[in-house]
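Interim report, section 4.2 (structural modelling).
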Amino acid sequence: MNIVVCVKQVPDTYEEKKLSDADKTLDRESVEGVMNELDEYAVEEALRLKEAHGGEVTILTMGPEKAVETIRKALSMGADSAVHVVDPALHGSDALATSYALAKALGTIEHDLVILGVESTDARMSVIPAMLAERTGAAQLSFARKVEVDGSTVKIERQTDTGYDVVEAQTPAIVSVVEKINEPRYPSFKGIMAAKKKPLTTLTLADAGIEASNVGLSGSGTSVAEFAARPPKQAGTIVKDEGDGGVKLAEFLASQKII
Amino acid sequence: MRLAPDQDALDFAGSVRELLADLADAAALRVAWDDADGRIPGVWKRLAEAGVLGLSVPEEYGGSGADLTTLLAVLVEVGRSALPEPLVETIVGAMLLAEAGGVIAEDWLPRVVAGEAVIAVGLGPGALVSAAPWADLLVVADHAGVLCAMPRDEATVTTSESVDRGVRLAAVDVPSRGGSAFDGVHLDRAFDAGVVAVAAQLTGLAEAMLDMAVRHAKQREQFGVVIGSFQAIKHQLADAYVANAFAAPVVARASWSVARDAPTRSRDASHAKHAATVAARRAARTALQVHAGIGYTFEHDLHMWMKRTWTLSSLWGTAAWHKERVAKEVLG
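Predicted structure of the assembly:
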């Protein structure tokens, strides 16, 4: 079973993120980049499936030069090779454009399964897995908290608000995972040493057969029109309890349409 | 001579830092302090899986065969987290076993690499053996002063209280067996490795305490401004930072000398322990002052970091003992 794991470099969760004034896209240069946390679970799951069933794990990422740090981490964890789609023309791509570029890049890699985290911590749209499934014609197995593979059958437990559904599909399939699924490993010393020797392929738009008109700011269907800093927190209302505290509390909740 | 850690060592230290931040944070440390056993469940195994425990073990026993210079950045991270695990003891014990070779090495080293065995060593000055209550294997001197290795249950281990609940100390009494598994092994070199390892932890502890103090100084307001804006605060912090920043290269140099068994090895190791101890104690005191003394109580995290600093200051030789050793080497 050959598996592709899509990973994304995102700004460190604990740092303040900024949009650039020039084109209103996320400023990725000024902040520390880390692997999107949920993607670590995706990499871990792929490695576990590989350990159980054989095959190869390929990391696929789209992003600026700097994203190679995240690729190196995934390779240090144990993935076999990586494909990095990097081209200035991709800057500003929205989810739809990104899914198009990723689908094209996927076409260059032989695979049975694609695994992704359910969402990235920067965009938080959770739509890439579904868009990729639609574009590639692969089955979509989303929100997996458990994945089992038997030959060409992939069975998952899909996390729901109240429990889980069991969903099954044939490969090729696209699986998005939630953090309940496993506990990601930390890159080991041997893994870090080995990662340097692993193949990393860099693809430009032309290499992957991506049409420039479908990606980047101009190729995206959505764009940021305007943005403003979050207003500072307002001081709360203090209600002095003079025997009618409960009533005042209820009135406040009612005024906020909470009750 | 290149003293700065290479990219692999830095990447690995980053990985260990992440592991410790996730699995051995202040809350976990607090639980371990209160716990009768005193260790953080599961973290030893994860350190083994990441390759920390096998890093300096020769490849023939399943390790990575790296030397102390590679281990250094990891030990700084271990210090930063004030980890209550017997890492230095086990690393030094494994060094001794690897050099001794034979059955004892074949029996124990693969278990050390796998995170299934803890070693406690009693080499240095001081009658109490740290980590002895946790150890599977003890490497300590018998009544005749001969170094021997034996499973813990074959010795008499009497636990002793420590101000730092993150370390468990014990008096160890081992029956004499008339022979040593360590004939011809360079005990003083292993001792120096332990000294440098602890010095590296002390620089990490100092960094952590200064981070806490700086965070507090940037947050706490007095007279309408953050207290970090006062010279009385920021100059103290800057001085403590500089002292630790100056100790770090001394420790790096010592790790180089130990790894290559340089003629100046013992002097460099002692210089490192002295410099790191003085810097870390200064960082502890400064952090305590900046926190307006609140680290005095166990309820504040700083408390645990300070006590670890004091404990490591005296384990593997005090600053005064090491200063004396440097003086002897330099002045003859």
